Amino acid sequence: MLKQKKTVAIAMMAALLMGIIASTGNFFSRAEAVRGEVLRLHVLANSDSDEDQALKLRVRDAILQAGSSLFDGTANIDNVREKLTQNQAALQSAGETVIHESGKDYTLSVFVTDEYFNTRTYGDVTLPAGRYTAVKAVIGKGAGHNWWCVMFPPLCLPAAQAEPEEYFDSGSLELVESDPKIEVRFKLLEWVESLRVRWFS
Predict the structure, then answer these.
(1) Residues spanned by the domain of 107
(2) Residue 178 domain-assigned (yes or no)
(3) CA-based R_g, the chain, Å
């Protein structure tokens, strides 16, 4: 009888473990899908001086404004990446104009790259940790605190009123609308992705 109870307990624990593994695997797969549907903006200031930090925000605004014209009703993640790559010079020019008008002679590099981000919440949307395609703008030495947001879906474009359900399928939407404070899998994912970046990048 005791042996039978142990067998049942082991079977129940095994079933529970398999359920956790399956749930986590599904969560990780959804996170991978979300990362493929998002384009981020990352701006690095020349330094942490008040002046350079303020300039960083003005450059950010100029790039976002220049980028907003690239997004219309036909936009999707694939053609948004293509449009931004094609219009990279225009984004850089917009940022350079702001820098020159401020009286600075800093260089500005604007390029599309693949970059790691920690879990981040923007309003009601949480983006899981991992590598994302990003438009990166480096002002001067790029030694100051940075700023980042989401260009697509256009969650931080000046005139955008993006609703997550317009851009994410039901599975991805469920993930990005999860609360990272109570969703332990966000922390687990961030730990796994940070190890991946440390050891395999």
Answers:
(1) 32-200
(2) yes
(3) 21
